Amino acid sequence: MKKHLFLFSFLVCAVAAGAQTVNIAVHPSQGTQKISRHIYGQFAEHLGTCIYGGLWVGEDSEIPNTQGYRTDVLEALKRLRIPNLRWPGGCFADEYHWMDGIGPRENRPKMSNNNWGGLIEDNSFGTHEFLNLCEILGCEPYVSANVGSGTVEELAKWVEYMTSDGDTPMANLRRQNGRDKAWKVHFIGVGNESWGCGGNMRPEYYADLYRRYSTYCRNYDGNRLFKIASGAGDYDLHWTETLMQQVGTRMNGISLHYYTVTGWHGPKGSATDFDAEDFYWTIGKCLDIENVIRQHIAVMDKYDKAKRVGLMVDEWGTWWEPEPGTQLFQQNTLRDAFVAALSLNVFHKYTDRIRMANIAQIVNVLQSMILTRGDKMVLTPTYYVFEMYRPHQDATFLPLDIDTPTRTVRDDRVVPVVDATASRDADGRIHLSLVNIDVDKAQRVRISLDEVKPVRISGTILTSKKITDLNTFEKPNRVKPEPFKGAKLAGGVVEVTLPAHAIVALEVE
Ligand code: AHR
């Protein structure tokens, strides 16, 4: 405890003399939109050790498991209240043939995972293992289907296998494989990155394929599919425009992928070895997602004023150089936690159009919640942001105005020093999340809530001595949330001393 008090005083003592107060005005009565819990979605691909080793070890493993799933990982994920899980890819999805992943495991054919190092995939984690995992986690499955190298028939049968309760051939096959009752599958992705690893298509061609493949994704026995078209990467507005024109409301959602990455070609930068300028650059690149989102939404608004089609940011997060000898396994520092918090803040703002987002990926790949090595597990700083932000799930988004200093970072991007988001939950409590990106200086923040005069406040903080701090298998608890004592009520407003490089979650009543 003493150590934390010391750390807190160390972090706040750097408030610059005469520094400007950051003013935040939250407008509770203007809240109309619900923040879909699906914005807190996750993604699990057959890539590196995400599935094998990360989520699944099999019943015979010495690693403690529950029906083959790692017990430690399951328990940690349950605490996040994951709303949905996307699977099996990513790029893997467009080479995946689901029939190879059903039936007795010893009979399942092997395949080469061509996108990810040509590793041999033994298909021991297939449809049953995935959908049962979702049931255990209490989340909705988001199945990403193969359009690149799969057939219409294959997809049609997969939907029937998963969701038909009738006396149909695929439902009977599922029963033979040990599952009587159909699962409920709402979200289905029709291809992934069809402009790239999913088939290198032009949007006009993909639009027709989408129309064809999605036609045969049937609604069985009360199951209602929400069909998601493979959407653009970054600023590819032409892709979105073509799909909105040629597919329109035949799709329930269109995806968007945006990574905080230094550049697709050439080195992507170290996950752990960076300085303050690199940190600020990362914040700028991360926040650029707002420009990308706005531009895609503007295109969508042209064709769909009623906002019937959702924008699904079903891949986002940081992408650094992988650890040597791994497939996309990267460490996760306090910097990654900032990317998580700031991205979620952006998604909240556009919640009338953004119906889902999936951070890439859940375990052991890119910006993970959890890292595993053998029987060890660590929770990353990103995990803790998802935990601290949990109250925003399905809460009402509260608009706010913020008057903050800004900072010009490399590539001439201008970023706010303090960022914030607010929501009100079903019980009337207001949740405020505050981010101070300043590496060195604490900020004085004053928050007014219009007619709401809070009487009680509590908070949690995520910070550490250095922005490069991280949790390792040897020191798994270096970066984790602590109770926050730097907020007080004064005459109906909230006054906060926000330590340098800190993320704070406040609850006010
Ligand atoms: O998340 C890793 C990869 O990034 C996915 O497989 C692909 O869709 C994207 O390019």
Detailed description of the structure:
By secondary structure, the chain is an alpha/beta fold. It has two domains: 2-31 and 398-508, Immunoglobulin-like (Sandwich); 37-391, Glycosidases (TIM Barrel, Alpha-Beta Barrel). It is built from ten helices and 27 strands. It has helices at 2-12, 71-80, 127-137, 152-163, 169-176, 203-215, 237-246, 276-303, 334-349, 381-388, and strands at residues 22-26, 41-43, 65-66, 69-70, 84-87, 111-113, 119-121, 140-145, 187-190, 226-233, 253-260, 310-318, 354-360, 370-373, 376-379, 396-397, 400-403, 406-409, 413-416, 418-424, 430-436, 443-448, 457-462, 482-483, 487-490, 493-498, 502-508. Strands 2-5-8-9-10-11-12-13 form an eight-stranded parallel beta barrel, surrounded by five helices. The chain has a six-stranded antiparallel beta sheet with strand order 16-20-21-27-23-24, covered by helices on one side. Residues 45, 89-91, 192-193, 315, 360-361, 366 line the site of alpha-L-arabinofuranose.
